[in-house]
């Protein structure tokens, strides 16, 4: 129903459903993220970096001054010179920052899961799917244990997946009825997504460009021009962040970090760059460097066809079972969902230029997968309804069995995740008692790493403002440790062996 009393009731019902999904998704993520023994703690290096960035923004700064003797404070994915800053763009951290200021930063990714589910529902409705099929699209996200647990973290994929869902929903809305506000909102979502993860932003921009091409003949130029202010604002924001982090308007923090430590890392296929790094990673992170280099060296044009196939299979595995994948393939016939397809195709092609292959790097395709699977389910139901009774009965039974199978897979997975949420693993739990004691001392601690150390575990993350931190962590550089002591007067100083957890006081 598109107008009158019936249309108003339909819109009201859609709004209620979207609100229910927002609450359900947020509640599910809150339970998984916050109910564990250790609470919603960062579990990976990337999460620690995003929290560092969120705390910096919450304090009113884009970056912080370079720490004294920066070689003591090097940590994975952080710049220490020319500024103390994350190597990542600030879109995700900007969403975390208000919640960080309120002391409940964990709530932000939980809200993002609920918002993504609501956006998928609304996108499905805009694409002409029925009410029940639109619920299927949202539930394929909330019931998918290959996907939604990633939201129970501080990883930026929570923002980029939500951004992708918003771009798809707004692209559908603009294609249906091009209005200035809708166009501005679409390109604002595109700009935001680009400030979260560049590949997602580029795919979003491609989607927006196709939308403009489609509507240009039926839309006044002044209306189309509403796309420009958000894009200009996004470009200016990017330039300001680059200037604040690297000193250059055109050098991104990520590019500077790569130049400093791993020039071979980043997008590219084939021969590896031979540039020498301008700085050296600390010894305990060399394992990380070796892993990145080996991954990049394997990413060649000769291996690309096979790699593309393996990544297609990886994307398919982001849906719960082959039945859902079959529905998604059928859903390609639902023409109104073309913006989701454009985004997913552009993103997949861009991601092929990056050497790492892991499910987390393809989560931005999930909105398209969920919508396509829901569309495929609706097409299947319509097909069965058009059959004669003799053929319709077994076809309907097959559909019911397929739906039950997907439902059982999702229900079982969600139940296991929810039941075991309190047993949620925390990588850094081993060291927390020692660090808690050191915080009580307001100490400066030098971390002594062994010769062989897992480069994916870094304990040297600090608060952005070292002068106010309850604990300052530095890398143990042996005889040079004394050089750092004058910069932190009044703090007791210790050397902590990270293997034995023995703390030796040196001041």
Describe this structure in words.
This protein is mainly α and 507 residues long. The protein has a domain at 431-505. It contains 19 helices and 7 strands. It has helices at residues 4-34, 45-58, 91-101, 107-126, 131-142, 157-176, 180-194, 198-215, 221-224, 228-246, 253-261, 286-298, 304-316, 322-330, 338-351, 366-385, 389-419, 432-440, 481-484, and strands at residues 64-65, 78-79, 83-86, 444-448, 472-475, 493-497, 503-505. It has a 4-stranded mixed sheet, with no helix packed on it. The protein has a 3-stranded antiparallel sheet with strand order 1-3-2. α1 (4-34) packs parallel to α5 (131-142), α2 (45-58) packs across α3 (91-101) and α7 packs parallel to α10 (228-246). The termini are far apart.
Tally of extended strands? 7
State the end-to-end distance.
75 Å
What Rg do the Cα atoms give? 25 Å
Low-confidence segments, given as residue ranges, are none
**Count of separate DSSP helical elements:** 19
Bulk shape: globular
Give short descriptive properties of this protein.
507 residues; mainly alpha; four-stranded mixed beta sheet
Question: What is the strand and helix layout of this fold?
Answer:
Layout: H1 4-34, H2 45-58, E1 64-65, E2 78-79, E3 83-86, H3 91-101, H4 107-126, H5 131-142, H6 157-176, H7 180-194, H8 198-215, H9 221-224, H10 228-246, H11 253-261, H12 286-298, H13 304-316, H14 322-330, H15 338-351, H16 366-385, H17 389-419, H18 432-440, E4 444-448, E5 472-475, H19 481-484, E6 493-497, E7 503-505
Parallel strand pairs: 4-5, 4-6
Antiparallel strand pairs: 1-3, 2-3, 6-7
């Amino acid at each position: 129903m598109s107008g009158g009393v019936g249309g108003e009731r339909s819109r009201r019902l859609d709004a209620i459903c979207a609100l229910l999904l927002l609450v359900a998704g947020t509640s599910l993520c809150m339970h998984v993220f916050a109910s564990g023994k250790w609470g919603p703690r960062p579990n990976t290096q990337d999460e620690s970096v995003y929290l560092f960035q969120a705390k910096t923004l919450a304090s009113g700064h884009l970056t912080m001054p370079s720490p004294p003797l920066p070689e003591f404070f090097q940590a994975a994915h952080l710049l220490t010179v020319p500024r103390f800053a994350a190597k990542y763009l600030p879109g995700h951290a900007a969403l975390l920052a208000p919640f960080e200021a309120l002391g409940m930063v964990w709530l932000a990714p939980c809200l993002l899961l609920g918002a993504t589910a609501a956006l998928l529902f609304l996108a499905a409705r805009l694409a002409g799917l029925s009410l029940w099929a639109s619920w299927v699209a949202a539930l394929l996200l909330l019931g998918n244990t290959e996907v939604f647990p990633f939201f129970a973290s501080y990883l930026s994929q929570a923002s980029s997946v939500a951004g992708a869902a918003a771009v798809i929903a707004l692209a559908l809305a603009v294609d249906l009825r091009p209005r200035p506000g809708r166009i501005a909102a679409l390109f604002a979502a595109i700009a935001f997504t680009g400030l979260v993860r560049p590949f997602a932003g580029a795919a979003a921009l491609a989607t927006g460009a196709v939308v403009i091409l489609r509507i240009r003949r039926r839309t006044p130029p002044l209306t189309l021009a509403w796309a420009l202010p958000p894009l200009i604002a996004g470009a200016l924001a990017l330039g300001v962040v680059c200037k604040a982090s690297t000193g250059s308007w055109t050098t991104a923090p990520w590019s500077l970090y790569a130049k400093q430590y791993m020039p071979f890392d980043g997008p590219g296929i084939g021969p590896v760059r031979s540039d020498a790094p301008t700085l050296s990673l600390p010894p305990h992170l060399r394992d990380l460097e070796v892993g990145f280099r080996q991954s990049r060296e394997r990413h060649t044009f000769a291996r690309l066809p096979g790699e593309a196939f393996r990544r297609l299979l990886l994307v398919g595995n982001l849906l719960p079972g082959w039945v859902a994948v079959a529905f998604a393939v059928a859903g390609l016939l639902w023409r109104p969902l073309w913006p989701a397809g454009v985004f997913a195709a552009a993103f997949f092609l861009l991601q092929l230029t990056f050497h790492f292959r892991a499910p987390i790097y393809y989560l931005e395709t999930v909105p398209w997968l969920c919508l396509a699977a829901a569309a495929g389910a609706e097409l299947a139901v319509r097909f069965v309804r058009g059959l004669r009774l003799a053929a319709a009965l077994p076809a309907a039974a097959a559909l019911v069995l397929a739906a039950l199978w997907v439902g059982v897979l999702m229900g079982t997975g969600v139940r296991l995740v929810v039941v075991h949420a309190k047993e949620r693993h925390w990588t850094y739990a081993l060291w927390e008692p020692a660090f808690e004691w050191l915080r009580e001392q307001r100490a400066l601690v030098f971390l002594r790493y062994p010769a062989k150390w897992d480069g994916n575990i870094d304990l040297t993350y600090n608060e952005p403002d070292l002068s106010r931190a309850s604990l300052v962590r530095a890398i143990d550089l042996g005889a040079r440790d004394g050089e750092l002591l004058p910069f932190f007067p009044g703090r007791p100083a210790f050397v902590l062996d990270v293997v034995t957890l023995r703390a030796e006081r040196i001041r």
